[in-house]
Amino acid sequence: MEESTTGQGQGVPTMAEMAAAGKQPEVLFWVGCAGSFDDRAKKITRAFVKLLQKAGVSFAVLGTEESCTGDPAKRAGNEFLFQMQAATNIQVLNAYGVRKIVATCPHCFNTLKNEYPGLGGDYEVVHHTQLLRDLIREGRLSVEGGSFRGKRITFHDPCYLGRANGVYEAPREIIRELDADLVEMKNCRQRGLCCGAGGAQMFKEAEKGTKEVNIKRTEEALETQPEVIAAACPFCNTMMTDGVKNKEKEHHIQVLDIAELLQDDPE
Amino acid sequence: MAYLPNLLFLLALVAGIGFFARNVRRLIRNIRLGREEALEGPRSQRWKNMARIALGQGKMVVRPVSGFMHIIVYVGFVIINIEVLEIVIDGLFGTHRVFAFLGRPYDFLIGAFEILALGVIVAVVVFWLRRNVLRLQRFWKPEMKGWPKKDADWILYIELILMSLFLTMNAADYSLQLLGAEHYPLAGAFPVSQVIAGWMQGLSEASLIAVERVAWWLHILGILFFLNYLYYSKHLHILLAFPNTWFAKLRPKGDMGNLESVKQEVALMMDPNADPFAAAPAGEEGPPAKFGASDVMDLSQVQLLAAYTCTECGRCTSECPANQTGKKLSPRKIMMDTRDRLEEVGRHLDAHKGTWEPDGKQLLDDYISREELWACTSCNACVEACPVSIDPLSIIMELRRYLVMEQSAAPSELNVMMSNIENNGAPWPFNQMDRLNWKEE
């Protein structure tokens, strides 16, 4: 994929365009609903796309042919709606002969990887932190940046990446590549505390309690006195950003996606 | 008359094991009330999991203090049970320390049992202190009131008494050996009970024999009692941890499985040639499958086995983000409620000679409230924390499925989210045609 000079948009082909040109990309980038519509998450989408372009990865997106994987419906208990979404998406994916998918959202990643095969959608699915880690290892992506060198960064494990799928080290390996000071929270990896968004909680008020889950998790993150809280999920990002604002620390502490840490010129 | 003790022993043994067998049959009957679930994945992996997690206590040591103490009690009980074999043979045939002919190895075994017994006593005391003096939070949650609290303490008392009786019996035996009493030949090593024997100095031979016999009988009767206590207690985990770790799911934790009944419905909807007015194919005349679960019979047998396996340690609840932030949800309570309801169903069946008459109750609402169910973030922390591979999240999901698909009773905000997905393919009200706008911004 050649680097675009007139704007990023031209470097992001859709599967339809690729198919029309008789080409098959190396990997399909599953943008996800948050990555498509949420203003904060869109920045992560663009950051990741820049990295794919920089590394010369041939990729494409589904664009308007992409639809929700059905994850929030499934976790809310609506298996019917989930399977309808899955059936539609699988028809599209199979029609394009998609073999490999990368997702920036761990919920999309989990659903595509684990729950689609049983419904006829069998693909190699990776999370963007895994793909980026591999690109760095292969030397296709160089870590220059330097703006995070020596900075205290704590990593919040997304439940659907960590516990749900056992991916703990890919994002950490990238942070170490940055020469940053990776500081772990008391509860990390297998025992990482949820940000509070999973299981469709993102879309409803929490039940009555003594505290919001994202505030509790933010407090755990703040204990490490970080300069950056790194996330690898658009929903965790929202929850932690809200938590940091609640603690009035937004001027000192950034909440950034792993893809954004690798950017040369962050948005 | 000479055979009276042997006869009494045989009677106690048959009664103890017979009653236990009756309860095991009841347990299996109750578990079979659940749905059968196809087992996926290689069996070799299941054996490995059982060996690592149950036999090897692999997940207990995540919390080092309680994990280490638990291993002492576990190893103690497993190994000291070799001694029970000797006691049973002695009891049936009127022998005394029938394995004493082994010589040195026997001394070593008895000595090892004694050290383990002391270790068990120490661990049990520490466990009691953690519960009742340090009052660790997870032992004092609302669901731990009443029987669960008493049950936990009683188990510790019973273990303490059994170990004390074992050591007392050995101490009296050792004293009698030193006195050269008839029927008490020199056998065994007594590194712990010799201290107790010191306190018995000055007792007559007759008194010592009385102490030894009483301790011996109480010890074996106590073991038979404990065996039968299991069915009524959270302590069933000492047996069920093994099958439960074997049956636990092998797929990644994030894979929550696709409902087969829904698969058929969706396939039908997606098939342009399907005739919506066609009669059900032969063999499918019965009522359509229920989506999700409202009662224990709708859960799988693996989930019901897990309910009996739960030992209420509360590691799940203490890791639960909802519980940590003051919500009503406690994964441990989900398991306890499932077991309580299953027991109730079992008793109801017994009262109606095995045929099911609706009793006007169910797991949902009568045991587990909707507020608990909707507080779950599906983060899998409870599943990860369980030392015996119980999956409380899967039960929460089944109940949610019932609420949403059978009752249309999702919280209104979630209904909004779901109609957004139906209408525009995203949980928010954005147009699907705008999905690529991010690249131009």
Automatic annotation (TrEMBL), chain A:
Q: Does the keyword Transferase apply?
A: no
Question: InterPro entries under this entry?
Answer: Cys_rich_dom, HdrC_iron-sulfur_subunit
Protein keywords: 4Fe-4S, Iron, Iron-sulfur, Metal-binding, Oxidoreductase
Cysteine-rich domain residues: 27-113, 153-240
Q: Which Pfam families match?
A: CCG
Q: Which PANTHER family match?
A: IRON-SULFUR-BINDING OXIDOREDUCTASE FADF-RELATED, IRON-SULFUR-BINDING OXIDOREDUCTASE FADF-RELATED-RELATED
Name this polypeptide is given: (Fe-S)-binding protein
TrEMBL record, chain B:
Q: Which InterPro entries match?
A: 4Fe4S_Fe-S-bd, 4Fe4S_Fe_S_CS, HdrC_iron-sulfur_subunit, Helical_ferredxn, NarG-like_sf
Superkingdom as given in the UniProt entry: Bacteria
Supply the Pfam families for this chain: Fer4_9 (PF13187)
- Where does the 4Fe-4S ferredoxin-type domain start and stop, copy by copy? 300-332, 366-398
Keywords attached to this entry: 4Fe-4S, Iron, Iron-sulfur, Membrane, Metal-binding, Oxidoreductase, Transmembrane, Transmembrane helix
What transmembrane ranges does the database entry give?
Answer: 6-24, 68-89, 109-129, 154-172, 214-232
Report the Gene3D superfamilies cross-referenced here.
Answer: Alpha-helical ferredoxin
Which portions of this protein are annotated as coiled-coil regions? none
**PANTHER family in alphabetical order:** IRON-SULFUR-BINDING OXIDOREDUCTASE FADF-RELATED, IRON-SULFUR-BINDING OXIDOREDUCTASE FADF-RELATED-RELATED
What is the official name of this protein in its record? (Fe-S)-binding protein
